[in-house]
Design brief:
This protein is mainly alpha-helical. It has 5 helices and no strands. The chain is 63% helix and 0% strand.
């Protein structure tokens, strides 16, 4: 696992922001995206580096486009 990576922290913030906007728990987001809740938690804390397919799954579960989820996430 990577620690203190600003790119991963930024993505994690976006995931959390969008999840809370939809009033979903990490558990519900995990269920809707077919991912593990601890994996979602790790992404939100910037500790996990999700693959593109998983980012797309999360976006779909949130009802937004992958590009919207990644908006503002940059080096």
């Amino acid at each position: 696992m990577l620690k203190n990576d600003p790119l991963l922290a930024s993505l994690g913030q976006r995931v959390r922001q969008q999840r809370e906007k939809k009033q979903l728990t990490q558990e519900k987001l995990a269920e809707f995206s077919c991912l593990d809740p601890t994996y979602i938690s790790g992404i939100e804390r910037g500790l996990r580096n999700p693959g593109f397919r998983n980012v797309a799954k999360i976006a779909k579960a949130l009802g937004i486009k992958t590009s919207q989820l990644c908006e503002g996430v940059d080096l």
